[in-house]
Amino acid sequence: MTTDRNCQTQIVNDIYERVTNQIIAAIEAGASEYRMPWHHDGSPITKPVNIASRKAYRGVNILSLWAAAQASGYAAGIWGTYRQWQELGAQVRKGERGHLVVFWKISDRNGEVERQDGDNDYDEPAQRLFARGYTVFNCAQVDGYTPPEMAVLPEVERIEHAEHFCAALDIDFRHGGSQAFYIPSKDYVQMPDFACFRDAIAYYAVLLHECGHASGAKHRLDRDLSGRFGSAAYAMEECTVELLSAMICADLNLSVEPRPDHARYIASWLEVLRSDKRAIFTAASKARQIADWMHAKQVRVQQHNVSGAT
């Protein structure tokens, strides 16, 4: 039993190492232009999806596959294992290198096992943690498959969806000044006037970022990274909400562009990732938790509107 646990621990550590090194390389590659692996053009086809299950990847797998697509220039976010492509009648080309995705199994105190797609929070207690890595290939790496044409909503409709999405979060937004920030003591988000932004998409990307900070309030998700990251907690909070903004923008088909004002965090992010191979997993998990909370708010608003209409 001890041997099995040691072997599993080594597998988990190896996965931490491999994924973290990939993210570090992606951050370093784009640092001069402030381009991070989570920046994307917002097109529907860039969201990482498994070809067999048709489900979107979660947690750190989103970031890992974004980084892989960015490094290799893949235009589509459709992925599958060698066998999954074969079962569809497609063939991974000889010499193509696959990319790692992670699935976790957590045995809780009641002995129940929950499987999660790259979306585990390692700060939560569990009796046993099982990890398994899978190698997946992008659709650009196979023959015999053509990505489907994806309908793209007109920009005006995407902006309207973003407006409704943010309004449903029930967070106090105020406008004025030249900087965007969240004030925890007063629980409101301050945004520059709409006209100060390059376009509406840039405005909502920043607003979602600040709403990500607001989600950590005690009466919302009660998020505190100080115990996990110590003096680096603020930098990792910024990393978490950056990932959150990118995830939600991908859901809303909005692009996420580099923000030069985040240049001051890049060195801190790299320092934390190099010293803590679990850091990016925790940040991605927290970001996914915020995204789930934001989507749940949309459902509640829709249910309220339906009940109100009747």
Automatic annotation (TrEMBL):
Residues 160-286 form the Polyvalent protein metallopeptidase domain. Transmembrane segments: none annotated. It comes from the Bacteria. Residues 13-137 form the N-terminal domain. One of its GO terms (molecular function) is single-stranded DNA binding. It holds the Pfam family ArdcN. This is DUF1738 domain-containing protein.
